Amino acid sequence: MSEEKKLPMSSAKKKIELEALLQWVGHGDRVLDLGCGRGILLKELVRIKNVYAVGVDLDFEKISRAIMRGLNVYHGDIMDALSTFDDNSFDWIICSRTLPELDNARDVIFESLRVGKRVAVGFVNYGYWRNRLAIALTGNRIVNGVFPEYWDTSRPTNQISVQSFKKFCADNDIIIKRSHCLRGDWVRACTFWPNLRAGYAIFEIAKKGHI
Questions:
Q1: How far apart are CA 197 and CA 127, in angstroms?
Q2: Are the C-beta atoms of residues 37 and 43 closer than 8 Å to each other?
Q3: How does pLDDT run across 143-156, given as a tens digit for each residue?
Q4: pTM, rounded to two decimals
Q5: Whole-number Cα distances in Å, 196 to 6, 74, 110, 199, 211
Q6: Any alpha helices (H) in the chain, and if so which ranges?
Q7: What is the bridge-based pairing of β-strands 174-182 and 116-124?
Q8: 53 with 31: CB under 8 angstroms?
Q9: What confidence tens digit (pLDDT) does each residue in 58-112 have?
Q10: pLDDT 10s digits, 117-135
Q11: Rounded CA gap, 63 and 60, in Å?
């Protein structure tokens, strides 16, 4: 079976971050989820880790579902929400596949590092070899379970790769404390050449000076 056919659906994608965050997030930590959607990830962190959870999302329908799950969520712009919090208000800020859809991703990262002691950033690795091969052979972006739509019907996407994210952190004095990369099936760990072989990556980042 090809790697594309093994790509999980949206509910399984949340499980990817959850498995890493359950190892990273402490019991009772304060967690802010940017682009929380229906609150599936936050609800699980509340259930398993008893975190103090807050979510933010622009999609009113998704926010309504999160409220039905009993979560404390805000409907609105991410930067507007972040500006209301003091420095180090949260132990963790989660950006789960949110950055690729933002037109101010750099500002959101910097503001997240102000508000949160640690930030978890997860994204589909656009440097994955199948994406590169599609461009090289056809000149077109790959269309599969991860990128299911052509350019004319999809939202603008920041094409983040593992290497470009590492460079961004190095150029801006951001510490990468740990990372978790997965192969193209989003199941098996990828420890060798992740910029080429990883389909998905999640990083824990922090400002210099934070433990």
A1: 8
A2: no
A3: 776 666 776 766 66
A4: 0.87
A5: 18, 37, 27, 8, 30
A6: 10-24, 40-49, 60-68, 78-82, 105-115, 129-138, 162-171, 194-197
A7: unpaired
A8: yes
A9: 999 999 999 999 999 999 999 999 999 999 999 999 998 888 888 889 999 999 9
A10: 999 999 989 899 988 888 8
A11: 5
3-class state of residue 3 by DSSP = coil
Give the span between the Cα atoms of 195 and 57, in whole angstroms: 29
More confident residue, 25 or 1: 25
Dump pLDDT digits (tens) for 177-211.
999 998 888 888 898 999 999 989 999 999 987 65
**Cβ-contact 67, 59 below 8 angstroms:** no
Residue pair 63/57 in contact (Cβ under 8 Å)? The answer is yes
Residue in the block written with tokens 């962190």: 45
The encoded tokens of residue 33 equal: 């989820």
Both tokens of residue 117?
Answer: 């002691």
Q: What is the CA radius of gyration of the chain?
A: 17
